[in-house]
Amino acid sequence: MLEATKTRHARFITFEGGEGVGKSTQVKRLVANLNRVAIEAVRTREPGGTPKAEAIRSFILQGRSESWGAGAEAVLFAAARHDHVTQLIAPNLAAGTWVICDRFHDSTRAYQGLTGGVDDKLIDGLETLALDGHAPDLTIVLDMDPEAAFRRVAQRAVEDGLALTGDRFEKEDIEWHKRLRQAFLSIARNNGERCIVISAEQAENELEAAIWAVVCERFPELLSGSQA
User: Fold this and answer.
1) What is the pTM of this model?
2) Is 52 assigned to a binding site?
3) pLDDT (tens digit, 9 = 90+) per residue, 123-156?
4) Which residues form the domain of 207?
5) Domain CATH number, residue 60
6) How far apart are CA 16 and CA 106, in angstroms?
7) Measured between alpha carbons, how far is 209 from 33 in angstroms, rounded to an integer?
8) Could you say which residues bind ATP here (predicted)?
9) Does the annotation list 20 as a binding residue?
């Protein structure tokens, strides 16, 4: 493998989608593929990525903020995101390192906004504050029927001998998750220049190949050898 180098123009790629569609696995695989073509990349997630943001993640996913309502959760996510951007995302991009993130601002718009009913103006304001000008260059939306996604999660839990426990959002009913799916698809339609929807119904290797094809098409310097 070629020694990893930093590009003069690092890219910021985010993965979005409902629960159980395989985002975390594909984030890892994309970072490995970037490393393979000598692109230095960092893998991160939301909420999380920094110590303060991880603390907020734990608080929310344990369900401790649920009684506060979707508006308060949106504020918490924005606080975590602001720390994540200023402490991890922006410094890495400035240093020429690509950033690949498992969820970002579209998740707040989908979960708390379109599905949770939080007013667009509040979401817009929190987004402007938290992003601080660092919008993704590309967002890959992994799309899958929620019922199929949860069957996949359950099967993997059985295969791994793990107990099937859900976090704050995984425990919502299936109709809620169907609305969430439509929220992500709506965001993708309204942001067609940035968002690409890819079916997550396919096998992991096929999905990895589809994602890599999209990334290479969007950023041709990956295959040309150019570091511009």
Assistant:
1) 0.89
2) no
3) 999 999 999 999 999 999 999 999 998 888 777 6
4) 12-224
5) 3.40.50.300
6) 7
7) 10
8) 17-24
9) yes
